[in-house]
């Protein structure tokens, strides 16, 4: 026999590869064949070697039996916070519809989908000026959901360059939303209603108890639909703010360079929109009616 010049590899009569140089390994893949590329059953493997004058053939038959492992479904989501903690930063996380009784913090940048989700704070200790649902991580987007029955605020804003949209925030003891210490965050198309009304939290008391029995917390301190301080560049747009026990949209103490536009604000017990001890506001396109009435 002479020196090999070419080796051909056949599977079931079909040429699958040709090697022209030693060590003549099939597809150069370390002398292995991935059988998962073949169907289960009997297959014929043939090698034909050539030298300058002749050729030789070796044939072998083998049975392939690939075991298919079915995919494992991820465990069901029973806690929004656990799902957030397990998610990769920057990913999209969709929470299944349902009611979740827990306090939640978005502590990493996410695109969080809460369509059909209710976060219910009944029985959970949430201090005043803190939220049942807190958006803390910069650059996060939260879409949908309902936040109700918080002992403090429903929604707390802490992260910069965030977007919270299409959310209902209602029946919270102190206020719908609260925030400070961020910049360039937007709330859009929120429905904020029936916050700071004692009929939904009978028999509660606090250091800032309201003198009017209609309210839980003194709205001249901080209660009602929502209050934001020490922020820059916040946008409140396309929201419905109504039937709250206090001010509707409220910026106080360095709530600077804000845009308040295209909102509907009605039937709040104090001012519809209040902007104080702050600088730079564009307030445009809003419909504001029947606020400041306690009847």
Task: Furnish the topology, listing elements before pairings.
Blueprint: E1 6-11, E2 14-19, E3 41-50, E4 55-64, H1 80-86, E5 92-94, E6 98-100, E7 104-106, E8 111-113, E9 117-120, E10 131-135, E11 141-143, E12 146-148, E13 153-157, E14 163-165, E15 168-170, E16 175-180, E17 186-188, E18 191-193, H2 219-222, E19 224-229, E20 231-232, E21 235-237, E22 240-242, E23 247-252, E24 255-256, E25 258-261, E26 264-266, E27 273-276, E28 281-284, E29 287-289
Parallel strand pairs: 5-8, 6-9, 7-10, 8-11, 9-12, 10-13, 11-14, 12-15, 13-16, 14-17, 15-18, 16-19, 17-21, 18-22, 19-23, 20-24, 21-25, 22-26, 23-27, 25-28, 26-29
Antiparallel strand pairs: 1-2, 1-3, 3-4
Question: How would you describe what is shown here?
Answer:
This protein has 295 residues and is mainly beta. Helix content is 4%, strand content 41%. It has helices at 80-86, 219-222, and strands at residues 6-11, 14-19, 41-50, 55-64, 92-94, 98-100, 104-106, 111-113, 117-120, 131-135, 141-143, 146-148, 153-157, 163-165, 168-170, 175-180, 186-188, 191-193, 224-229, 231-232, 235-237, 240-242, 247-252, 255-256, 258-261, 264-266, 273-276, 281-284, 287-289. The strands form five sheets. The protein has an eight-stranded parallel β-sheet, with no helix packed on it. An eight-stranded parallel β-sheet has the order 6-9-12-15-18-22-26-29, with no helix packed on it. A seven-stranded parallel β-sheet has the order 7-10-13-16-19-23-27. A hairpin with a 4-residue loop joins strand 3 and strand 4. The radius of gyration is 33 Å and the shape is elongated. The N and C termini lie far apart (109 Å).
